[in-house]
Each structure stands twice: as structure tokens, then as C-alpha cells.
Design a protein that fits this description.
single chain; alpha/beta; Rossmann fold; 12 helices; 10 strands; disordered C terminus; binds D-glutamic acid
Length: 287
């Protein structure tokens, strides 16, 4: 099997990364996708940077050992804290690592005439400030507001993406942006779950452009694979397979809300024995 026939590895703390998987499926229909949701350790959004890095190395390492041609970090919190560590670990294997932040930032900069950009995400993503740094690095005169909206994750998983509860929560989190002296013209949905709430978010922030990093990430993956000569050339449509570290039933029930179909075929993998510290060496040794 040639390298370009290997699947693209995609991982997230749980179900949220399915928004990225869906965007990849649309953008790259010939590619096989291997998704890993770390449902035994979700959520990542409230954990410390070191813990997120350890978890990300463990799941990324597992996918690398199974054989993937690229690794997509389909989680904003893991991209915030672990992208560089993963890039270092995967470099000896020649596996490109693509996170969701750089593509989302590039898309937001294209969308925003005024440079007034807001980012919403988990507590960890906002605390880490990676979006803000990347935006200001590219456009130093930008005005950036970063806001955690943790309840959006539960609403999306519960399927409460419209109606009075979702509207009330969106209004409570986001009306300060609308009422501020310098309201943003662009809002980055900096969490895998938030695209499901795009309609209620748009109601609270009329006229503000919403940037969904899932589609921007899928475009970045397509570009990177083309540059590296790794696009799969086959007439057979790509297939997706799913791995979770716990509670497959819940993953499939909630996952259907994200994907529109039940994520299948899916199986549970136990990563509790896999080392998450010496990973670069183990990867390099092909252990
Ligand atoms: N996938 C996470 C993110 O995009 C949200 C869920 C979690 O906190 O683990 O940041």
C-alpha cells in the first residue's frame, strides 16, 4: 500500500471533532478517515495544559501507530495546548499535523474588513490565547475579544441547538459583544461544538460573519496533502471508521446529531496502558 492510500487520522476529545470530519468528507470524498474520540477523558476544555498535552500525545500516537498519512487535531483545546508538541513528535515519521486554529484565523482575516474579531471557545482555548496571538501576529492593528462559552458544549450534545434555552444562553454570553463600543464584524466559532449553534448565535449577533474553522481546516488539509503528493487517487469513495476510548453507545447517539448519520463502523479502544510521555521515542522507534 502506498502512503497516499493510508487514512487521514482525525482526533478530538469526543464527538465535537465530527464537525471537522464531516467537512473533510465533503472536501476530500476520496479519502479514508480514521477518527478517534477520546470519550474516556472528555472534556479537554477545562483541563490543565499539561494534561491536554499528555492526552493528545496518547491519542495522536495511537493513530500514528495504526498508520495514518496525516494527523488532524480536530479539537480547539488540543490545538491550543498540544499542536507544537504533536508536530515535534510526528516530524520524525514525516506525518504532517494540522490543527484547527491557523485555518480558522486565516479565514477570519479574509472575512473581516475592520479587523474587529471575536473568538469564542472553551475555557482552555480562551485561556491559552492561541487564536488571539495568531490573529495579532498577522494583523497587529486588529481588535480581538476572546470569550469562553462553556455551556454551548452541553447544549450541542443535548441537541438543544434552537428554542428558548439555547437563545437565552446565547444572548447571555454574546450580547456584550453586540452592545460593546467596538462590536466585532467577525466571530470565530473556536470550538468544535459551536457550528451546531450557528443559527442562535447569528440571531444574537445580526450582521456578524461567523467563521467555522471546520471547513477552513478541511481546505488546509486538502492543500497540505496536495503539496506533499499525498492525495488518494482512487475511484472508490473514501470510508470513515471511528474509535472511541469509552461509551460507544453515547458516542453514536450524540454523534448522530453532529454527523446526521450514526458514526459507524465504530469500536472501543483502551488506551489506558499506552505511554503518553516518551511518545516521540516510541513513535520514532515504530513501537
Ligand atoms: N472539542 C473541544 C474543543 O473544540 C470541546 C469539548 C471539550 O471541552 O473537550 O475545544
Amino acid at each position: 500500500m502506498s502512503r497516499s492510500d493510508l487514512p487521514i487520522g482525525v482526533f478530538d476529545s469526543g464527538v465535537g471533532g465530527l464537525t471537522v470530519l464531516e467537512a473533510l468528507r465533503r472536501r476530500l470524498p476520496a479519502e479514508d478517515l480514521l477518527y478517534l474520540g477520546d470519550t474516556a477523558r472528555v472534556p479537554y476544555g477545562t483541563r490543565s495544559p499539561d494534561t491536554v498535552r499528555r492526552y493528545a500525545l496518547r491519542v495522536g500516537g495511537h493513530l500514528a501507530r495504526r498508520g495514518v498519512k496525516a494527523l488532524v487535531v480536530a479539537c480547539n483545546t488540543a490545538t491550543t495546548w498540544a499542536l507544537e508538541t504533536l508536530e515535534e513528535a510526528a516530524a520524525p515519521l514525516g506525518i504532517p499535523v494540522i490543527g484547527v486554529i491557523r485555518p480558522g484565523v486565516a479565514r477570519a482575516l479574509e472575512c473581516s474588513p475592520s479587523g474587529r474579531i471575536a473568538v469564542i471557545g472553551t475555557e482552555g482555548t480562551v485561556r491559552g490565547g492561541a487564536y488571539g496571538r495568531a490573529l495579532l501576529g498577522a494583523r497587529p492593528d486588529a481588535t480581538i475579544t476572546q470569550l469562553p462559552c462553556p455551556l454551548f458544549v452541553s447544549l450541542a450534545e443535548e441537541g438543544w441547538t434552537e428554542g428558548p434555552v439555547a437563545s437565552l444562553v446565547a444572548e447571555r454570553y454574546l450580547s456584550p459583544l453586540r452592545l460593546s463600543e467596538n462590536p466585532p464584524d467577525t466571530l470565530i466559532l473556536g470550538c468544535t461544538h459551536y457550528p451546531l449553534l450557528a443559527d442562535v448565535i447569528a440571531e444574537v449577533l445580526p450582521g456578524v460573519r461567523l467563521v467555522d474553522s471546520a471547513t477552513a481546516t478541511a481546505d488546509a488539509v486538502a492543500e497540505r496533502l496536495a503539496d506533499d503528493g499525498l492525495l488518494r487517487r482512487s475511484t472508490r469513495p473514501g470510508r470513515a471508521r471511528f474509535l472511541v476510548t469509552d461509551n460507544l453507545e453515547r458516542f453514536q447517539i450524540v454523534g448522530e446529531r453532529f454527523l446526521g448519520v450514526i458514526p459507524s463502523p465504530a469500536e472501543v479502544v483502551d488506551l489506558s496502558d499506552e505511554d503518553d510521555r516518551a511518545l516521540p521515542h516510541r513513535l520514532a522507534a515504530g513501537a
